[in-house]
Design goal:
- The structure is a single chain.
- The protein is of the alpha/beta class.
- The chain has 24 helices and 24 strands.
- The protein has a 7-stranded parallel β-sheet, with helices on both faces. A 6-stranded parallel β-sheet has the order 3-2-1-6-7-8.
- Helix 20 (about 445-450) links the parallel strand 17 and strand 18 (about 455).
- Helix 4 (about 70-80) packs parallel to helix 7 (about 110-120).
Length: about 625
Amino acid sequence: MISPVFIFDFDSTLVRIETLEALADLALKDAPDAAERKARIAALTDDAMNGRIGFGEALKQRLDLLALRREHVEALTDRILDEATVSIRRNVDFFQRNAERIYILSGGFREVIAPLAERLGLAAHHVLANDLIYDDEGRVTGVDTANPLSRENGKPEVIRALNLEGPVVMVGDGWTDAEVKLNGAADRFYAFTEIVRRDKVVEAADAVAASLDEVLYAEGVAGRWSYPRNRIRMLLLENVHPAAVERLEEAGYSVETMKGALDEDDLIEAIKGVHVLGIRSKTNVSRKVLDAADRLMAVAAFCIGTNQVDLDAAADKGVAVFNAPYSNTRSVVELAIGMMIVLMRDVADKSREMHKGKWNKSATGSREVRGKTLGIVGYGAIGSQLSVLAENLGMRVLFYDLSERLALGNARRMRSLDALLAEADVVTMHVDGRKDNTAIIGADQFARMKPGALFLNLSRGHVVDVDAMAAALKSGRLGGAAVDVFPEEPRTNADPFDSPLVGLDKTILTPHIGGSTEEAQEAIAEFAAERLLGYLNRGDTTFCVNLPNVQLAEVTRAHRLLHIHRNQPGVLAELNRALSDAGLNILGQHLKTDERTGYVITDVDRDYDREALTALKQLPGTIRFRRLH
């Protein structure tokens, strides 16, 4: 079977601009009638691309309006690489591997096109374009009229003259590209709509391609059998930061966003056809939701915790779950420091009195944090960083953690939670949301604390018995509390909030904002998005919380086969037997397992029978099988 010859238009296909309109911005920068002339040039471009005016006539009129000089052309040439279309940039390897069977065919200008063609690995004689003519003073006087591309129906004429062997595939956005197929010079024409969609062109096309990935998938070359990224649906809930949306869309994926959380029934309905789900802390992804997910590959928790996701159920379905465990650490730590100081100085109650017109200037009960003892329950990323900052404020730091942790600075590890509670002037919670941590602080623990001690919870609502906390505050056992998380929280800002802590003196309540700073949300968005892209694009499971972690490089000149299976004997042997039966040459292989799941990544030569891989999906223990180019 002979591989296709690909012929690409340039403007609004390989690049996101129309060359003449970009040149107009440069050439008419200081012209008094610039707006009028630019509008006329844009109209002529649109008329030519939609077939309402002959290309040659439109080109002549536009050049007359421009008054171009060599420096204008050179200025555009210098930045043309920055204008490459998104899907072209991510498929540079396709052009470089298939350069001998790819041409650029354009009514544009060779010297503007040449830098991008070189970047794509195309030889100079594979750039078929117009040549500008300059006078002795560097003014553009026109184009070489002997070149067929300077006139109507020039593209079909140029292609026929090449005497190409194999099916010819034309990819472009304009009417002159459609004419290539209509005049019999191409076997197939794809209307390229990533930048602009023209109805008349679409109607004349064999197929519509919203990205280059669509073309490659349909033609079965280079990136063959990798599902086009723009067909992969992502649903991001709970106001995920726009940085994540931008990064995922830039990578070619289709992203839908929603402001609030969804309850189980609504999520079951919304998740149908979704490949990637993004959530924060208020959406629960239960086994029932996962059972209803017909295409789900990954869940991204744009927050620290993942207790809102049934991780075992996700692993059983081969759904990778990622989070952002460190991205909002600093924000939570700063809030904890601020709350300690505000509580020590009784700022909240004094501020409330001031708003009621009461002036109560007094030092009674107002203390410095310097010299006080801070007890940190949970010495992970947040607890340990808080330890360092608190010590810099002059505090003595104690901590308690079930895991072995390296003490930073002069912090001292306590042998038990009770021992910490007995010594601390301030107790702050920074444990994870696992079920075992439910109500680890209750009436007994508050009774063991120093009378008048302060208490902070910025971890998870269920780790503290709030009724016991309210009683300790009312009795004076606690000298004050700051709480950012609650056992039951509203799903949206429009829903009401209630708690036994509402209205109590010396009590600061905040609506789960520990990590809600602009810096933290952007960092979380970028981190979680990159983890998703690593998994989708190369199978990398680094920081995945429910599947074996494997760090992988990009796929280069190979196909990657991803096989997730139940951790049971014999799977790898059966997998390799199936690969051998398919005649595949293994270039590299990784296997990683945990107590319930195995993950095999196999890089193989690109040349193989697609149907031969059917057996891999049917191996005993298989949970999910995926191919990447």
